[in-house]
Amino acid sequence: MGRMIRRALSLLFLAAAVCAAQTAKPSPWVMQNSGTTASLRGIHALAGGIAWASGSDGTVLRTEDGGYLWQKCAVPKGAEKLDFRGIWAWDANTAIVMSSGPGDASRLYKTKDGCKSWKLLATNKYKDGFWDGISFINKDDGRLLGDPVDGKFQLFRILLRFGHAELTQFKNPGLAAKAANQGAFAASNSSYDENSMIFGTGGKAGAYVYRINTVEVCADCSDADEEASEMQSSFVKISVPMAGGSDGAGIFSVASDDKFGNERSVVAVGGDYEKPNESKGTAAYSADGGWRWTGSSVPPHGYRSAVGWYATDRAWIAVGTNGSDYSRDDGKTWQPLDDGEWNALSLPYVVGPKGRIAKLADNAIPRK
């Protein structure tokens, strides 16, 4: 009799386990083995299964097979204690990595041989400077964003020529800011969006975006013909209804979709990183290329450090230290995906602390 009861209980437990496995919601992120315990904040995905990642202690990783195998790169000389917050790559061999830190702890290194060796391209020469993010238009032309120095955000044009980097700083008065109450965040290398030419800020002054505004002006107003006109650009500071008012609050990431001009949808995410579970003020959206902003009516379920448009699924994904969320209505409302710890994304990849790397599973984002 006892044997029959034990067998019946075993069958009952087995049936319950099978039922639980069938009803359990699969994770949207498929974990990969990074081979490191570094805190990862840089990630850049390319076509053909190529991706690069970066993080603390001079860590750089690369894969050529979609993440089946992540290779740990050589550490650039003198960079053993640097925090590589941003990385930008063009192929399996060529990439630039950016470290973030005070003064000369902010640097750019480049590899052309698949990260076997590195060349130091640039070092922040301002002791009060702090670099936050890099992005590139093409192999030769990029942008570098840094916190305010001498009353202005540091925004540089990077020109790569003859193996060197030429940094030219934008002196535009529209970049005015006080370092004591305003700054950008280097949490995910996504505070600047090149497509919309917008960067997000935070701090005690509140949450703002700086958007480039290009207008046609008359060079000689007495003769306003086409030959006498020219294009001039300035930056416009625009308030965004998101969390702010403290050093750790504001906009941490800005991204745009694949439309053009004022038809672009632009999404900003952030919040207060010291309050990771607070959802209020963590996202806003713009339907006109970043000129006018509205707070999300249903925000992500916590502070978010990165956001991206995933053209494959026609959806937005935001990640942070208490999980990830998605939006199918251009940032108006958000739904939770998971509760993992994440720092940055370059879809379909996401990275986080302690060497966490994952790839978005097929059909992970619900259609409804």
Quick structural overview:
The protein is mostly beta strands and 368 residues long. It contains one helix and 28 strands.
Provide keyphrases for this structure.
368 residues; mainly beta; Methylamine Dehydrogenase, Chain H; four-stranded antiparallel β-sheet; 1 helix; 28 strands; globular; disordered N terminus
Structure, explained:
With 368 residues, this protein is mainly beta. The chain has one domain (26-360): 7 Propeller (Methylamine Dehydrogenase, Chain H), CATH 2.130.10.10. 6% of the residues lie in helices and 41% in strands. It has a 4-stranded antiparallel beta sheet, with no helix packed on it. The longest helix has 22 residues, at 2-23.
Question: Which helices and strands appear, and what pairs or packs with what?
Answer:
Blueprint: H1 2-23, E1 29-32, E2 40-45, E3 51-55, E4 60-63, E5 71-72, E6 84-89, E7 95-99, E8 107-111, E9 119-123, E10 131-136, E11 141-149, E12 152-161, E13 164-169, E14 192-193, E15 198-201, E16 208-218, E17 229-239, E18 249-256, E19 266-272, E20 283-286, E21 294-295, E22 306-310, E23 315-320, E24 323-327, E25 335-338, E26 344-346, E27 349-351, E28 357-360
Antiparallel strand pairs: 1-28, 2-3, 3-4, 4-5, 6-7, 7-8, 8-9, 10-11, 11-12, 12-13, 14-15, 15-16, 16-17, 18-19, 19-20, 20-21, 22-23, 23-24, 24-25, 26-27, 27-28
Strand content: 35-45%
Radius of gyration: 23 Å
Low-confidence segments, ≥5 residues, pLDDT <50? Answer: 1-23, 224-231
Number of helices: 1
- The strand line-up of the biggest sheet is 1-28-27-26
CATH superfamily: YVTN repeat-like/Quinoprotein amine dehydrogenase
CATH class: Mainly Beta
Largest sheet composition? 4 strands, antiparallel
What's the end-to-end separation, in Å? 51 Å
Helix- and strand-based class? mainly beta
Q: What is the third-level CATH name, the topology?
A: Methylamine Dehydrogenase, Chain H
Corresponding CATH architecture: 7 Propeller
